[in-house]
User: Which sequence fits this backbone?
């Protein structure tokens, strides 16, 4: 997913230039898919601030009911901010995954049973040998 988010950001930055309308249709589809993926991940991790941001991006770039702003000067900052947000979510998730990996490594160590964790002086030893039958 990380390379895909980087590709989405790169396509947003390329969208700043004057290109044919087919590229912008491709950009709408690509960014919508990327925003859906990020939206799903942020909702599953309960990161509601990113969920709201990428919901707005999804609405703005949706290919089914496109929003036309008719001026390139309006789309340039939107494409730039969207590309930066895709890069930002890409690097923020990497830091969180590293933290999660550190936590899972600590919890995977087998814990000692309770009777082995007690200090030897706390153990009760029966001085009598059990009868063998």
Assistant:
């Amino acid at each position: 997913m990380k390379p895909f988010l980087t590709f989405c950001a790169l396509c947003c930055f390329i969208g700043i230039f004057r290109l044919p309308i087919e590229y912008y249709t491709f950009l709408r589809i690509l960014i919508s898919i990327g925003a859906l993926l990020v939206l799903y991940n942020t909702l599953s991790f309960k990161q509601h601030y990113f969920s709201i941001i990428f919901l707005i991006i999804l609405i703005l770039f949706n290919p089914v009911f496109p929003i036309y702003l008719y001026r390139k000067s309006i789309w340039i900052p939107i494409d730039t901010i969207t590309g930066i947000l895709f890069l930002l979510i890409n690097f923020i998730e990497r830091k969180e995954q590293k933290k999660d990996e550190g936590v899972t490594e600590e919890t995977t160590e087998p814990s000692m049973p309770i009777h082995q964790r007690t200090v030897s002086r706390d153990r009760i030893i029966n001085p009598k040998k059990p009868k063998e039958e």
